[in-house]
Specification:
Radius of gyration: 13 Å
Low-confidence stretches: none
Number of strands: 9
Largest sheet: 7 strands, mixed
Shape: globular
Distance between the termini: 14 Å
Oligomer: single chain
Length: 106
């Protein structure tokens, strides 16, 4: 799963985040580029959210594209968030002190 150069496969990282989220105190850190659906553009500034947990889709979640393109999570304050999976750049997990790993998608 992890490569010597500190990269993680994107699908493996998302699975790990979902498994960690099932633990009572399990959480992760995620860094991604936000996407504006109104403008149709990804932001240039990396957004970092700590103490996140993966979540299920809520009834009010509406997506114009297949929901499988999104990663759904709650932030450290418990607010529901989502981001395009392909725009996730780094993730950190508790087993290595939340050191950020570069996410490789292709």
């Amino acid at each position: 799963m992890e490569k010597a150069n500190n990269e993680l496969n994107g699908i493996d990282a998302l699975r790990l985040a979902q498994e960690i989220s099932k633990l009572p105190d399990g959480c992760f850190t995620i860094a991604f580029f936000p996407y504006s659906r109104a403008r149709g553009l990804a932001g240039r500034k990396l957004t970092v959210k700590e103490r996140c947990k993966a979540r299920a889709q809520l009834p009010e979640d509406r997506f114009q594209v297949d929901s499988d393109n999104y990663f759904l999570f709650t932030d450290g304050d418990g607010n529901p968030r989502s981001c395009y999976r392909i725009l996730i750049r780094y993730m950190g997990f508790p087993h290595d002190d939340f050191k950020l790993h570069k996410i490789k998608w292709l």
